[in-house]
Amino acid sequence: MLTLTLGASAQACNAGRYSSDVYSAVTTNSTITYGSATTYNGTTQTLTLDEYEGTGDTCTARPLIIWVHGGSFLSGSSTDADVSSLSSHFAKKGFVCASINYRVGMSNIDSADAILAVIRGVQDLKAAIRFFYKDKKTTNTYKIDTNNIFIGGSSAGALTVDHAAYLTRDCQIVDAGYITEVNLTNMGGLEGVSGNAGYSDKAKACISLCGALGKYGWMEAGDMPLCSMHGTSDNVVTYSRGIVNPGIPLMYLDGDRMLYAQAKVVAVQDSFYTWVGAAHVPYAGSTAAELAYMDTTVNFVRDFLVGQLGCTSVTPLQASDKVFGTANLYSFTPCPLGIEPINGAGLVLNAYPNPSNNAVTVELANGQGAYTIQLSDISGRVISTGTTKESTYVIEKAGLSSGVYFLKVADTKGITTVKKIIFY
Hints:
This protein is of the alpha/beta class. The chain has eight helices and 18 strands.
C-alpha cells in the first residue's frame, strides 16, 4: 500500500501538482479542536488548529504539512504571519497545511521551565499528528495521505519539530540532566496526553526554519530526513551552537548548522540552506527583502518535499546556499539503545500512546512468523506473555499499577527487541 501511495503522489507531482501552484485561492477552516491539555499554571487549554487547502481541491489522498509557530514558547499563535503565509503557499501547490496552537508560557523564565515548555510543545504537536491519523481512520474529513505527513516550524516552532523528530527516547533527555524520569512520566512522557490516544504520531520528515536541538547527538542513524534553513547572524537561535534568546538567556542549543554536521556523521538526509548575514526568521514580514526571503524559503522547502514524495522530473527551484563555517561537534555519548531501539529497528516499529493511562498499541515489523510478547515490570518480574501473527498488538493496563514496564518481542528466528512502556 505504501508503494502504491507514493507512486500516485509522484505521478501527481510530476504532472505539476506539489511542484507548482495549481490553485489560485486557498480555503481556510479555522479553530478546529484537536485536543486539550494542562498548561504550565494548571489550567486546561483547548488545542486548536487552522487547516488550509486549495479551493476546489478534490484529491482524496493529500500530503500534509503541520506548521508550528514561533514566539519563544511565551507567545504566538496559529495565525502568525510566517506560518500562515507558508500554509497558504503550500496549499496552493496541493498540500494540506495545518497551523497549530500549542501550550505556551512558563512559570519562570529560566532554563528549567524552558525545557518543560519545549516538551509541552512536542506533546501537543504529536497530538495534532494523531488527530489526522484518527481522522483518516474515521470520518476522513481532510483526505490526508498519512504516509506523507511532514512537520515544520519557525523559530520556537522549529525547536518543537526538531525535538519531536529527534528526541525519541526518554533516556536522551533524562541522561542529559534536563529532567528526571519521574517528572517526565508525570508530564505524560514525550508522547503526552494532549489527545487522540491510540493513533500513530509518526511523521515522514522534518522542516526546521531557524531551529535547534538540545543536543546534536540526539539525531541518530535511521531518524527522519531534515530540511533546514538558518541565518548566520541569527542572534536568537544561534546558527551553530550557542545560548538561545540572549536577551533572556535560557539554555545552550545546537542550531541547524550543528544538525547538518551530525546528519553527515549518522547518514540522515539533510537538505540545508544558509542565509549568509541574515538575522532570525528573515522571511517573516512584508518588506521586499522579507518577501524575497519567503520566496527562497518556499522554493527550497518545496524542492525537499517533492523529493520526499518521489518526484523524478521536477527541476529544483532553489539551489542550496553554501554552508558557513565549521561545526565543532563536541564530545557526546548517546544513551544506551538496549531499552528503546531506534524507531524502525528490530521488531517494534512503534508503540503509542506511550505513556498511556489505559492501553498501548504496538506496531510490529520485520519479524518472521509468529511473535512472542512478554511484559515485565522494572524488577524483571514477568507480568504477562502472549503470541500473535498480526502486525499490531494491544497491551491493556487493566489491573497494572502505574509505572515503567518492559516489552520484549521475539520472532521465530530469534530476533528480539525490547521497548519501554509507561502506564500512569
